[in-house]
Each structure stands twice: as C-alpha cells, then as structure tokens.
Write a structure and sequence with these properties.
CATH class: Alpha Beta
CATH architecture: 3-Layer(aba) Sandwich
CATH superfamily: Alpha/Beta hydrolase fold, catalytic domain
Shape: globular
Strand order of the largest sheet: 1-2-4-3-5-6-7-10-9-8
Order of helices and strands: HEEEHHEHEHEHEHEEEH
Largest sheet: 10 strands, mixed
Number of domains: 1
Oligomer: single chain
Distance between the termini: 39 Å
Strand content: 15-25%
Length: 305
Amino acid sequence: MFQVIRNHLLQILLALGFLCLSSNASAFVVIKGVSSFKVTTTYQGVARSTLYFKPSSGTTTKVPLLVVLHYNGGTPEAMSTLTEVQELVRDYGIWVAVPPVADGSWHDDPTDTSTTDDVGFLTTLIDNSVAAYPVDAKRVYMTGFSDGAMMTLRYACDRPDKIAAAAAVSGTMLKTLVSVCTSPSFATPMALLNGTADAITKYSPTPYGISLTLPDSAKHWAKINGCGAAPVVSNLADLSTTDGTTVTLTSYLGCATGDSVSLYTINNGGHTWPGSPYNLSYQGKTTFDIDGTLTIWNFVKRFSR
C-alpha cells in the first residue's frame, strides 16, 4: 500500500513540474547503504565521467557489474533516478556503472559514419572496471533505455565476449544491425521490454521502416541463441488494475544458453521504463504490473560467461 501511495504522489509531483528528468539533471535519488562515485575515462581523446554505485559496506569477493545506458538527451544521474537501479545495489550487493555519451547520442548503427567508437569505449569501461574494482568479469551485464537500448543491442552483437546477458527497454533491432549480427562469437541471453503503444520505438514499425518489429527482434535473438523450441506465451498477473496496461511474456526455450530470450510485451504501454514513478505522462502509459529494473536483474543474473 505504501508503494502505491508513493507512486501516486510522485506522479502528482511530476505533473506539477516539481520533479523532472531533464538533460541537465545532475542529482539522483540517494539510498541508504549505497555509495556513489565518478570516474573519468578518456577514450579517443574525449573524457567521459561514468557514475558508479556500490554497496557502502564493501566486499571481499568478486561481484556482478550491471552497465546501464541512458536514453537520448539523458544523463547518468537522470537514468539512475528513472530506473532506481541503486535499489539493486542495496538489495543484491552488485555494482552498477552508468556511463554518458560522447556527443549527444549513442552510435548504435553499424553503418554510422561517425568516428565516435562507443563499442570501443564501453569495452574499455568494462575492462577498466574489472581491473580496478571487485568486479567479476564473468558476470558483467548490460541494459539500456531507448537510445541506450539500441546501443545495448549493438554491443551484444559486437562484443558478446564481454557481457554474460543483456536487456533492452524500448529498443528494437535496426535492420542494418541485423545484417551484420548473424553469428556472433557467443550467444547472448537477451530480454526485450516494450510497449505496444510506444510512439518513439514502434512495437510494429512499417515493413519499410529502419527496424524490425519487437516480435521479429526476439525471433532474431532466438535464432542467434539456438532456441529450437517454439516460444511459450503467458499473460502475467495484472497487479495494477488502474494503470491501463497488461503484460504478456513470450519465452523462448531450449536455447544453447538455456531459456535465454524473453519478450515482455506491455500491452498499451508507452515509451516508459516499467514500474518507474519518474516517467513523464506524455510518453504514454507506464505499467506497474512489473518492475522493469528488478525484472531485468532477475533475468540476467542467471547467466555467467
């Protein structure tokens, strides 16, 4: 009940303009038991400051690292607030790294002529994190929202050796990426979470669009991951009967890497992070039937490279 009341209060504050996830956001929600710091990495002559979260109590063993990629126009701080990813750090003792873009957006299209190498930067970030911190190289995961989701998909195609699993929220496979992502060196478990009413990342773009539909994106990953069995489709519990959404889960089984492809279809959902009270209303409906951040963690944590 407290969580429901809290979500309603936050939505009211957002509507009144007291809370905002703007590109200038420089603060994030502080959670007891979680420490944060920034580290600057210079790659291709460009300095980028990554925001890290870790348990305040420290650890004597290697722990998983979740790399979180923000949306177009976002910041590491705003992304941290949107996803409330610090709660994973508090509850599961993991580390989280939230890096920024170099020049306004992630370069997720392999045909992009920009000289900015985001794949190389993220690889350097992961390698540096493993070398400097108590991060388990076999349990590095990646997720992202919108533009960050598209970059996550590209990274999983280009450097699957660096991540054990990934998840993309409001992101789909570009056709230019599909053409070069046919047989990666490793199969990467992948979760896709998208709303059918997303006006920015279309769930079912036209056949002449630049990207696949979400079901076809899931099928592509199922093919890459060697999923031989037909998917199992189930309707999840409608935990919030007032949010105007329901969630359908399509699970691909019998994959080479286990049950490793999941498509969460948020019926009537918008361009929003599932379960977050910080989404803006004009981006469409937010489902509260699942917690996007926890759903992603429960998916990726099962896998090790």
